[in-house]
Amino acid sequence: MSLATTEATAATPPAARPRRWTARPGEAVAFGLVAIFLLAFLVVPVLTVVTVAFQDRATGGFTLAHVGDFLSNDLFMRSFWNSLYVSLMSVAVASLIALPLAYFTTRFEFRGAVLVQTLGVLPLIMPPFAGAVAMGLLFGRSGSVNLLLGDWLDINIPFMEGLNGVIFVQSIHYFPFILLNLSASLRNIDRAMEEAAQNLGSHGFRLFRRIVLPLAMPGYVAGASLVFIKVFDDLATPLLLNVREMLAPQAYLRITSVGLEDPIGYVISVVLILFSVLSLWVSSLALRGRDYATVQRGGGGLARRRLPRGQAVAAYVLILLILALVLAPHLGLFLLSVATVWSFAPLPDGYTLAHYARVFAESSQYITNTLVYAGLAGLIDVILGTAIAYLVLRTRMAGTRWLDYVAMSALAVPGLVLGIGYLRTYFGVTLPNDTSLAAFWGIIVLALAVRRLPYALRACTAALQQISSSLEEAAENLGARRLRVVRRIVLPLMAGGIAAGFVTSFATAAVELSATLMLVQSNADAPLAYGLYVFMQSPAGRGAGAALGIIAVVIVGLSTLASHLVAGRGGKESA
Q1: Separation between Cα atoms, residue 220 and residue 285, nearest integer Å
Q2: What is the 3-state secondary structure (H, E, C) of 523-540?
Q3: Which terminus of the chain is more solvent-facing, meaning fewer CB atoms within 10 Å of its CB: N or C?
């Protein structure tokens, strides 16, 4: 299971349970430990944020005064509407990018379809805030594209101005969610239905609008809802583009400038949670009561349609232009990482490796911390994911399904909200060395683990669902104890899914910024994403920041490749 596929399908619930056994003491202990972890590091911090948002500071009682202050403040309401506008427009632009790639590569004879799909997923492995600076150099007012347009046509297009820049960057970064889900849905449509429509005179765009897209709507809605959530909750991209009038930046600025006692920051956090949950609910509501089933999955082996020569040429040109656009951040970041000076020119004035040397000489701690934090977070996630999957699928204990629901609810909790919740909940908890728990580097690991738990959980659940419970029953009938059965039978057979879950959690945790931006107390404890954000704050540091960004892309890319290899080996072994 790859990184992109796991993230795009993380919200998919587990299938019906096979035969389950009665719970035993070891399973009860596992249930208790998992429940304590989720309560301590997910439920309680989130409830703390919600409580403070509705708590009177003088009496401690319930109040809506803070909500009233939020609603009556022009800045906050403008930030709310800006966030909503940017999220909806990002979904629209991301759809325009993803639809042609998905449609032409899945429904027609299209050479290079696998390469197009692979390149289309690459934007996900780059932190969006890293690509924002590179996009500014390419598409900004004095960027490469506008300099060339000014020389050739005497025009300047405001690609990166204000909210346009946020929409542009976010659309390019998150459109793969729509691409992945929509492609999967398009592949499952019975092509005989298209042929029947063609025989009745429906062709071209009418065929796509009336037959193909409606049947693929579940995949599109799933991808679009993920894009909306990610954009609505994103913090770093607007900050790096100097766009402060959005909800996530306002929450961050209120907490960091006014302090942890400021209730408005918590009200904004509650709004972020509500809209994340609302987007998931609306996406499920949009599909309720409708039948999207087809007779035969994938058309029962019917051949893909051929495009007429003229349309084929136009399709290739369109897709090449789209790929050039979505891969532009990678090119821009690489050029910036090796540029001596790049200002008011289409390309850098010269090239150097000094930025990489600076990173490894001065900031290698960022890389080391990232490997440690992401590695520990991935380990925690696969342990919890395996335990929850086993309890849900193999026991009759009451409440196991709620463990799954609570763990998956982390998808709807923005990293910024989790970070604020940790600060508020654990700032007063003191460790034996007189250090606040909220200032301890381990709290960053816990935040990363909670944020990425849904991905590992779905990978572990999928792996366990493919193991027949009859194998475990046979081992028990031969006298093996339950713990021995789990250790010698279940875990080895789940190894592929566990490894894929670890790699996915590791890769996504390596570039997480929203939660860590709130929790990092010193540069010595900062991970790579935080260092990248700090470097990108000043023009003098952007070369080194770009080099750090390329290193982040390499780490995530290698992790994604490892996930593919693990999934492939797991498939061969299970076969």
Answers
A1: 14
A2: HHHCCHHHHHHHHCCCHH
A3: C
Please tell me the distance from the alpha carbon of residue 459 to that of residue 152, in angstroms, as a whole number.
Answer: 51
List of residues 6+ apart from 76 with CB closer than 8 A: 70, 247, 250, 264, 268
Specify the DSSP class assigned to residue 21: B
Tell me the helices (H) and strands (E) count for the chain, helix number first. Answer: 29, 0
Instruction: Return all residues near 28 (Cβ < 8 A) that are at least 6 apart.
Output: 397
The whole-angstrom separation of Cα 455 and Cα 11 is 9
What is the per-residue DSSP string for 160-222?
Answer: TSTHHHHHHHHHHHHHHHHHHHHHHHHHTS-HHHHHHHHHTT--HHHHIIIIIHHHTHHHHHH
* Token couple for 402: 């709620």
Per-residue pLDDT of the chain (575 residues; tens, 9 = 90+): 455 555 555 544 444 444 444 557 778 898 999 999 999 999 999 999 999 999 988 888 899 999 999 999 999 999 999 999 999 999 999 999 999 998 888 877 778 887 888 888 888 878 877 888 888 889 988 888 999 998 898 888 888 988 999 999 999 999 988 988 888 778 777 666 666 766 666 666 677 777 777 778 888 888 898 899 989 989 889 988 889 999 999 999 998 888 888 899 999 999 999 998 888 888 777 666 565 555 554 444 445 677 777 878 888 899 999 999 999 999 999 999 999 988 888 889 899 999 999 998 888 899 999 999 999 999 999 999 999 998 988 887 888 889 999 999 998 899 999 999 999 999 888 988 888 999 899 999 999 999 999 988 988 888 888 787 777 778 778 777 777 888 888 888 888 788 878 888 888 888 888 889 899 988 889 999 899 888 888 878 889 999 998 998 888 888 777 766 665 555 455 44
Rounded to an integer, what distance in angstroms lies between the CA atom of residue 502 and that of residue 504?
Answer: 5
Write out the DSSP string of 409-459: GGGGS-HHHHHHHHHHHHTT-B-TTS-BGGGSTHHHHHHHHHHHHHHHHHH
Which residue is associated with the tokens 């593919």? 564
Q: What is the C-alpha to C-alpha distance for residues 486 and 339, in angstroms, rounded to an integer?
A: 54
Both ends of the chain: CA-CA distance in Å? Answer: 16
* CA 384 – CA 169 distance, rounded (Å): 34
**Coil, helix or strand at residue 5:** helix
Rg value, the chain, Cα: 25
Using alpha carbons, list the distances in angstroms from residue 224 to 90, 325, 475. Answer: 9, 20, 45
Query: pTM of the predicted model, to two decimals?
Result: 0.83
Q: Helix, strand or coil for residue 29?
A: helix
Instruction: Tell me the one-letter amino acid at 176.
Output: P
Measured over the CA atoms of residue 552, residue 553, residue 556 and residue 562, the dihedral's sign is: negative
Give the SS3 label for residue 305: strand
